[in-house]
Amino acid sequence: MTNNSTPSITLTDQDKLTLATAAHGAVALIAAAGVKSAGKVAVAGALALASATGPVGHALAEKQKGVKLNGKSTAELADKVLPALTASMSLLNQQDPAEAANFRSTVVTSIDAGARAERGGTGPAMTEMIRKITEALDAA
Questions:
Q1: Residues 6+ apart with CB under 8 A from 9
Q2: What pLDDT, on a 0 to 100 scale, did the predictor assign at position 4?
Q3: Distance (Å, rounded) from C-alpha 113 to C-alpha 43?
Q4: Which pTM does this prediction carry?
Q5: 12 contacts 89 by C-beta, under 8 angstroms
Q6: What pLDDT does residue 5 have?
Q7: What gap in Å lies between CA 89 and CA 42, rounded to an integer?
């Protein structure tokens, strides 16, 4: 009999805050880049995040008091979110590469879901934001 259990990971409250900022922030960035349907984009992305499983899913399901996804501009939001995406991938890769892959997949699924909710399809701004998010995920 083989042991198919995955290594357990330990996430501090700060780690969970970083994951939440990264994942929910990615959805917020996609919504900000949407031209016609920001609300629908945000809802579709958030619903996709709610389907996350494993330790990442548990961390994202917890209400995080310190998540602040506000700013005067999309640039200010991106200044918080893009580094959080890279930091999340780095900390998860250190503990369990499979869980890092799970996080990446969860974020990509959520931004894809958000992008599909944009009426008329994604435009150049949203396409560029997706590229920046993906680049931040892959920078770790």
A1: 55, 92, 95, 96, 99
A2: 46
A3: 9
A4: 0.90
A5: no
A6: 46
A7: 22
CA-to-CA distance for 10 and 25, rounded, in angstroms? 22
Amino acid of residue 133: I
Domain residue ranges of the chain, discontinuous segments joined by +: 13-62+73-138
99: enclosing H helix or E strand: helix 97-117
> Which residues are CB-neighbours of 137 under 8 A, at least 6 positions away?
85, 86, 89, 104, 107, 108
Q: Which two tokens stand for residue 138?
A: 């892959």
Residues near 56 by Cβ (< 8 Å), separated by ≥ 6? 19, 92, 99, 102, 103, 106
CA 25 to CA 12: how far, in whole Å? 19
Report d(CA 117, CA 114) in Å as an integer.
5
Total residues found in the chain within this entry: 140
- Residue (of 73, 55, 62) closest to 6 by Cα position: 55
pLDDT tens digits, residue range 56-114? 999 999 887 878 888 789 999 999 999 999 999 999 999 999 999 999 999 999 999 99
